Fold this sequence. Notes:
The structure is a single chain. By secondary structure, the chain is an alpha/beta fold. It folds into 2 domains: 1-39, no CATH class; 41-233, Rossmann fold (3-Layer(aba) Sandwich), CATH 3.40.50.2020. 36% of the residues lie in helices and 16% in strands. It has helices at 2-14, 34-39, 65-69, 87-96, 103-114, 131-137, 141-153, 176-183, 209-220, and strands at 76-82, 123-126, 156-157, 162-164, 187-189, 197-205, 225-233. It has a 5-stranded parallel β-sheet with strand order 1-7-6-2-3, with helices on both faces. It has a two-stranded antiparallel ribbon with strand order 4-5. Helix 5 (103-114) crosses helix 7 (141-153). Bound molecules: zinc ion (ZN) (2 copies). One zinc ion is lined by residues 19, 21-22, 24, 32-33, 35-36.
Amino acid sequence: MKVNNWIKNIRSLLYPNGCLLCGAPGDFDRQFCPACYRSLPFNRQACHRCALPLPPATPPGALCGSCLAKQPPFDSCVTALCYEPPVSRLISALKFRQQLHLVEPMAELFTDRLGKPLRKPELMLPIPLHPLRLRERGFNQSLELGRVVARRYELAIDWRICRRVRHTQAQTGLNEKARQKNLRRAFTVCGDVNGSHLVLFDDVITTGSTIAELSKTLKRAGAKRIDVWALARTPGR
Length: 237
Ligand SMILES: [Zn+2]
Ligand SMILES: [Zn+2]
């Protein structure tokens, strides 16, 4: 009891503004007040292969039209949230304004959504940033978020096996074909992944071309199964 109070006091010093979204004072689970937590756009009804949000009445285990037409190179994908306000605002604050106190509560939203993984992967690989981008930003948000998730599930994490070897232009504004071309040979694998069950961790999945390109590279290197976990997914393609 005493220890709990002590932790509470420390937390209120660290997070004096209460709820991360509305600022309501209090020491909340996940740092969201109950009303804001309920209003978060969790991505519960989604294609189990690429996490594209599907209409609410879709039965569990359904695939989207695009995955039915052509299977992606990864085996499953789960994202906690839909990338829309207020989630997009929180992720931008984390990435572009170095609000690193958001890492822990945002990563916990992922573990809330996933619960216990059905098949535990052997190793987590965060999506790498190119060294130039890493220097500019100072940290890799996928690694920071992935670290919290990996700790929760007692998974090993390795941020050196996958490297981004080409400094690709920003993907925003490019269509699917142009994105694929832009990412070609963007990654290299420096390590043994032969026969392994991996999980990639990303902050935001937009069209899925980054995870597809990295998955292809890893499967060529012998990876047996690749799951993808991410914090958020854009609703459209
Ligand atoms: Zn709130
Ligand atoms: Zn799909």
